[in-house]
Amino acid sequence: MQDNFENDITDEAGRVKPQWFWYLIEEHFRENGLVKQQLSSFNNFVKRVQDIVKTDTFKFEVNNSDTLRVNPADEESHTLEFDETKYRYPQIKTSPNSNVKEKIFPHEARIRGLTYASELKINVKDTIYRGGKLVDEKTSDFFDLASIPAMLKSKICRLVSIVKLNDIIQSDECQFEQGGYFVVKGSEKVVIAQEKMSPNTVLVFEGSDMAKYPFEGNINSLAMNDEVRSHKIRMDFPKNQEMNKDLKVKVPMLTMSRMMCDVPLVLLFVALGYETDEKIVDAICFDEKDNEMYNIVTTAIQANEYTTVEKAREWIGRNSKRSNKEGDEIVTENIEKMRRDGTSKLKTDLLPHIGVDNFESKAYFLGYMTNHFLSVYTGKRNGDDRDHLARKRMLMTGGLMMELFKNALKKLTKYARNKIQDIVSHKKSDNIDYGKVYNSKIITDDCKKALSTGNWPQPGGKEARHGVAQVLNRITFTSALAYLRKISSPVEGKRKTQKPRQLHNTQWGYICPAETPEGEQCGLVKMLSLMAQITVALPLQNVQEIKDQLNSQYCKDISECLGHNMNTTTKVFLNGSWLKCTDEPQKLLDDLKQYRKNSEKGKVKKVMSMVLDQLHRELRIYTDAGRCTRPLFTVSNNNGELGINLQKEQIKQLCIEMGRNDENGQKKKLWANFLTKGIIEYVDADEEEMSMIAMFPSDLLNRGSGPAVNYTHCEINPALIMGILGSIIPFPDHNQSPRNTYQCAMGKQAIGVYASNYQLRMDSLGHVLFYPQKPLVSTKGADYAKFGEIPAGINAVVAVCVYSGYNQEDSVMMNQGSIDRGLFRSMCFKTFLKDYKKGEETDLMFFRPCEGTDLKDVSKYQHLDVDGVAPPGTKVRADDVIIGAFYKGKSGELKDCSMRYKPRENGVVDQVVVATTENRAKMIKIKMRSIRIPQIGDKFSSRHGQKGTVGMTYRQEDMPFNIEGINPDIIMNPHAIPSRMTVGQLVECLLGKVGALVGDVQNGTPFQPGLTVDVISDRLHKLKYQRWGYEALFSGHTGRKLDTLVYMGPTYYQRLKHLVDDKVHGRATGPYATLTRQPLEGRSRDGGLRLGEMERDCMISHGMSALLRERLFLASDRYQVYVCDKCHMPAVANQRSSTFECSCCKDRTHISKVEIPYAAKLLFQELMSMAICPRIYAEM
Predict the structure, then answer these.
(1) In the sheet that 469-471 helps form, which strands lie side by side, from edge to edge?
(2) Per-chain mean pLDDT for the chain
(3) Any domain includes 492
(4) Which residue from 731, 736, 729, 734 is spatially nearest to 979, judged by alpha carbons?
(5) Which of 230, 321, 330, 1016, by CA, is between 20 and 30 Å from 717?
(6) Which domain holds residue 1154?
(7) Where in the sequence numbering do the catalytic residues fall?
(8) Is residue 328 part of a domain?
């Protein structure tokens, strides 16, 4: 048996068979999960916060030297800086005034409407000087700096240490919980990854104003220690007819931040110390044969009037925007001050990612940027693709939280400085309470506000980003997982641009090709593919190690290669900074790959990428955050034969050790071992561009036809290009593309089991299917998303035929007998919340009123218990009271502020929670449940975008049946297939039939070379069934055999959340608006059915004047007005005494009664208030 196992792993040539790769993929998901990109980003933020607070940015000094009548000997100064930091797992106070705290878990935070946050504790070092002498150094006790919302399953969450299944269930969490989101004020919030352009990269695009600037070069320079604010530099070169106002010839111009005008390129070179023409030409022109570029540069040099460093910096200082603390612009004529300002500008705003004082390196990079731009301008190099994935970075939760934290910490530092200054000035510095000085609410409130509203403040006064944090969609388990892998593009949805929306070639394997919303967000909101990851920035010590590697024998300084030598040498970049040059790039690349392979830290292997661009002679190394990466097999050449580096023994060892623990009781990290051995390599979009990747291991074999391809990598499996919801679709490669997109949208709306602890949760809305089934035809991706364990659908027997015509236009017919037996029956849960503020709580009384109480309808209160709350198991109807709350008015009468059950259908109280909020106010939550039985109008869908509503339900005896007496559960229309081209559904039905007969789940994973329709049909034929899935059916009405064979078999169907019971609406009379006396709008307010403008036009075209009068007037806001027949103004009428008088002409006899809409009467009164006189002429 052991021999058979080993022989089954490899083929005749000794290569591992592709089906065994799935064990490796399974190990990847067991080790990394599906939300690793969220957790690793947030954990990095938690770690970096401890370093950020210790920087000099948040160190300050205050003194009392400005205070009146202070002797020099009594001058006192305090220098404050943060010392040590530590985190505490989430806790909550037992009472508002108590210092006693108790543990809190995410489930309790959800139930009680609390924020699940970890305390960041810190102490402060205070250095005190008096009279210029050091007198004391204090270190405060630890105090709360902030409460930082804790991402579930992160390092600061209590769940991170809970590994065993029983312990997870004991903590009231879902056993499949993967974390990656926050709990803020009881609501689950997820931070959506934000797409942005790559920083520190020179990009040349077609100009936004093509008439003036044909091209524009851009770089967003972002210093390594500053993740918040980037400095954008734009380079433009006008067309021939466009001239600069100050210069007589056209020259390249740069737009810099905080400058009042554009800066001529040559002037900037001079300011950086390049005063000679030769140095400027050598810095820009790399090819001595490129006369066109040479002419542009020399023309710009001749046009430059500022030939010395002092004059150039003075010009920059004069044209810089300067402002005081109040924001008013400062104008100065001091030349020395201007030069200092110009120098400061060059240090801080010009290419800060290269350094502050390194003007030489900035000049080198500026020359490279100019060469790149002019090469595109002169047509010698193609412009950059704005939509290339390598030009994009994903701003994850950690980066966004760091933005928020830094801004809030600056506010807090400013607040603390003012507080300390006030204390020192008033000579009260003997006993400073640092906990009060550093108000923890400042950072805490900013974090809560951003996560609650989703509006993320941006630095530099920019408009806040909207929709960054969103409520986690919990309709199904897979929809919640998909939300955690969402990516949002900054392009506005209303813009009709197509390029950013289209699927780009470089997105293969990183972005799901199917999962994107319909409508204006189509293509702008994307989902990560199954195995795609987002990088976290490499620590500075590792970056320094890479810099040390660049000091090898193959590298030389940039200064040695400037000028025409640059045309034959290769430029070496690290995260956008030009560091070195090399004449042997391949050897240097091999050394760097060897360093990556030998690195002991797995993070270097996952994050570091290298690209050798032979065309442009560039070696680019990246270690920054936000790049999409994915794992691939590495390929090696063994005696002329290409093959992946995975061996039979390694797969065998993997199968043996999967799920086992190591010596410390932790699960063994087997995936990391494959990464360490170099069998698998993480590749980003830029490195992939310069790689040759085989789709299947069989493609590596040189079969003699055509030239041999030098492959560098091999796909693990092409099915992994799909996202979470796309992976649930069986045979998506057989469907038309939009159908897969529709299913990805409907997969989020399917009713199933959304969490294993749904009975404990108090979600505002939830649907649970009574008898969910795992699909007969599943995919490997669905297994990793736990779709088989927590499913959202049922395997229904589906017949594709026309039967009595009630399944036209995408509707379906259903078997009422199956429905009665529980097919697609579900439970709807709704939670009602009553939150009583602390001020009200003492006055409120909760009880069940008895007969004789001065209330309108005491019978509505009969379901309440003695404590005023309906107990679990109580059946309630619409408008019944579920929480009886009363208070006494000023005159002692009983006022009712009870809560009523508003939905129209009946319900049962499922669960009641009485808790206290963070402010110790009383809160009552009642979860109601109601059964939803499928009926005509409910929406259903297969997993192939074939959606439809129920058009008719037939009794079982009226449904067609086959020779075995099997009735179909669903009858769908055959006309839904040809135009939609959902062949995948037909293949699923065929394979599902095989699965039902053999009693096993079948594999519907896409891109299986050996699985064809012929193979499936042969299997079905061997099981004594018709080869193509057809069956002879007999009519349930007549008992006669139908004329044609019918395609019938099990297909996985989903019940969607769009139910008739939630949408049916109609009324005769009901509430109306007080102002206009017209019916209210909306089902929830029992509103009327509006006859709109288009309906009105239709009625007019048919001449239905009486119907129009009834709908628009009689059934709406009919009103009687008395009008004077002489002056035609409204009259005053007293119907009780039958007296009428015109208030204008005082006539009492010539008065007519007119019926007009109340809205018209309101308009007339408003016109009269504006001294406009509307007159009504009544027909006699």
Answers:
(1) 182-184, 187-191, 469-471
(2) 88
(3) no
(4) 736
(5) 1016
(6) 1083-1170
(7) 810
(8) no
